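Shift notes (night). Ran N(6)-L-threonylcarbamoyladenine synthase while the centrifuge was going.
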Amino acid sequence: MATLFHPGAIAQAISDAKLDATELDGIAFTRGPGMKACLSVCANAAKGIAAVLKKPLVGVHHMVVKEHPTYPFITLLISGGHTLLLLALSSSHFSTLATTVDISIGNAYDRVSHLLGIKWGSLGPGAALEKLCADNPVPMHSFHKMKSSLPNPGELIFSYSGMLSAFQRYLENISHDDELTEQRKAEIAWTFQHHAIEQLESKLSLGLKWCDRHGHDIKHVVVSGGVANNAAMIAWASMERFLKNDHDSYDIDLRSEWSIEDLNS
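Came back to this:
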């Protein structure tokens, strides 16, 4: 985990843009949600630069920065920290349709990858599990029979802890004499992935039906993950506030837990 920002990267970005630091109109950064230690890296850098240059500062909710089609639309956010189905009615009006009551899908992917002993290197455990599946196609009849039913059927609730427990029990019950070959790992990984994605599909379908019943004409679904977040999107999301002269103070706090519904106006 990084604890210091890299001044050279900031200097390089300004140089590549053929600008002088004094020509910047303002400084934007990710205020939350997320891990506080990580958020503080960019926040401290942004606050320091803004204060020294006497430029306005805007802290952005990272979920607002995703590119979006015409309102209203639904966003399915899936990452290591989120499993969230969100109804976006405007740039300042959001409604959470479903969220996880325990762990996120990304967290479950990481844990199953660890349980299977998948070597992940620079990919990350969840990505390594996906790669194992992609490199080893498995027919449906090879999926392992595990007691992992769809949680909370008919309800707009995500839950992955029960599925994770089912896979953990299954692996514990495998005979120690049985060799866990790469092919067998792939079969188990495919089985997990099938159940995990099946839940996303089911809850998304429920969310679309809910919107239809409540008069929201949804034409688009945005599927987004944590890696979709980047500096260009943060800058774009801050523009509306900069244009309205709506700025934050240099001592603004971070929001490691921050419901997007708090932004509703």
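The radius of gyration is 22 Å. The beta strands are 27-32, 57-61, 73-78, 83-90, 93-99, 221-224.
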